[in-house]
Amino acid sequence: MRVIDLPGEPGGHAAPITAVTWRPDGRRLATCSYDGTARIWDTTDPARPVPVATLRHRRLVNGAAWHPTDPDVIATASADKTAVIWRLGTGPVTVLARHTDDVNAVAWLPDGTRLVCVSEDGRATLWDTGTGVFRTEIGGHTAHCMMVSVSADGRIATVGEDGLVVVTDPDSGAPPVTRRYAASVEGCAWSPDGSLLAVARDDGFVELLGPELATVLSVRACGSAARTVAWAEDGARFVAGGYDGALHVFSNTGARLATIREDRVWPRSVSAAHGRLAAGSFGGTPYLFDLDSGAPLSSSDTRTHGPNALASAGGHLFVGGDSGVLLAVDLDDPSRARAVGLTDSPIMSLAAGDGLVFAGTYSGEVLSWPPSGAAPARLGAPVPSLALTGEGLIAGTYDGHLVALDPATLTERGRGESHGGSVKSLAAVPGGFLSAATDRSVAVGSLSRRRTLWEHGNLVNAVAFAPNGMVASASRDHTVKVGRVTGEQRLTLLGPDESVKCVAILGDDTVLAGSYDFGLYAWTVDWSDPAATLRSGRLLAEFRQGVSCAVAIDESRVAVAGWDGRILIVENTAEGPVIRHDLAVADLLAGAREAVPA
């Protein structure tokens, strides 16, 4: 397993914050990050949180849970397939390492001697924290198990991408209580007295459920996915974090009390304690708010520049990332770049052509550069994908919508048939476009008429097209599929042992794909020898974090970027793909011709 190796940031994390959790006394906050660390912050002065400890994993840290009675003990959950029990000031006490996939969340039982871990393999497992001994499996999901919460009386609730909610009492021997939703459920939290279970659904609803999982209250929290939920200590209020970039505060009777919006808040995780609300961010420090007024107490004043999107046109490579800065790299001299502070929201997608660059943001906007006077299109959900086609600028949203925009005015022209999940990637083809989504499908066609080209075994992260008609798609199922846009000649390329995040086609027969295992791989497609696809691709380069995005510059060059801020330009040669340029976003920003936000 390759280990995250990002430069240290003394004032905060070096990558976005994935999770936050207050210690019960409200004087310490734990934050988890894509940089492979959990940090402990002294929040005595909430206007100036001070980092006091760093806990390091090999991969990104997904969650943390404070011990119920010992304020110096905390458990962390990581994509390195471990959960670790730490004593602050001492180090790791116990490592729970018998997990087959990423550990997404952990929760203590009230006795403080047992810990529940949930992971991407769908399992929920119970462990003895003193000895590290596996005790039992307490339930399972048919898709990723995303969150766990334990009530004051020891009942365990787990939720997952399969829409299943499971409540188990490990000490009573009673059969589990279950309920299944049509939408993915990624957040859950018991009320302080254990009488209500709040669940956050991918369709934007938060429901409060009784002990037998009957609905007590249902509220539409946001127009996009509701991803997390937390209670205030008195149980009178709960807070939902939505992928509309906002925090939504409700009374336990369903009255909306406040909506808190900040462009750089990442409400993948929220936590409330002592009248304060904490939320994750796309910067290196957490956001803190006053729960009663919604007023900010401290903001994320640092920016991380991990690249999420690439596009190429007019002799330039365009790079967009977490900071909202757009980089325009001169392909004749890749050491030269121009930097534009385009937006305060992270850039998730790019498309370029006809002298314009279009950016889709986490806040749900589509913007153009250079400024044309067109007001940003506001689509109401994050925009992970863009493509310029004959029907205009096509935007794919987190909610699964396909929206056609006029490239000149950014006004909406129409909407097409939706996917059953987030549209992760788009690529223009003659007469239409390809789309790849979390519903596992790759589709092709026009805005109004589409057909499924093929499906993967898990969500599809990226799709690419080459002028010779070849299509390639990258999936969380660890594979790359290649075929023709006509649907003929399909092969499966075995990838690394982790999710394949991005894909590009180089020349006529070379496929490049980047993975969450930090590797960039290359395959030469041989249509006459399907058995050759059973061999993994050749490792072309190693990054220090996951490989995030790729784009064809022309038929002989591809650009690939990683969340470590590294950008490679790969050229096709008679001997195979060769790395011609190895660039660093930090160096490009330092030498850029325009000032960028600090």
UniProtKB/TrEMBL annotation:
Swiss-Prot/TrEMBL WD repeat ranges: 10-42, 54-96, 96-128
Keyword Repeat found: yes
PANTHER family: NOTCHLESS PROTEIN HOMOLOG 1, WD40 REPEAT PROTEIN
One GO-annotated biological process of the protein: ribosomal large subunit assembly
Recorded coiled-coil stretches: none
Keyword set, alphabetical order: Repeat, WD repeat
SMART domains: PQQ, WD40
Source organism superkingdom: Bacteria
The protein's name in its UniProt record: WD40 repeat
Span of domain Anaphase-promoting complex subunit 4-like WD40: 183-233
Organism: Actinoplanes derwentensis
A Pfam family this chain is assigned to: WD40
Database matches in SUPFAM superfamilies: Quinoprotein alcohol dehydrogenase-like (SSF50998), WD40 repeat-like (SSF50978)
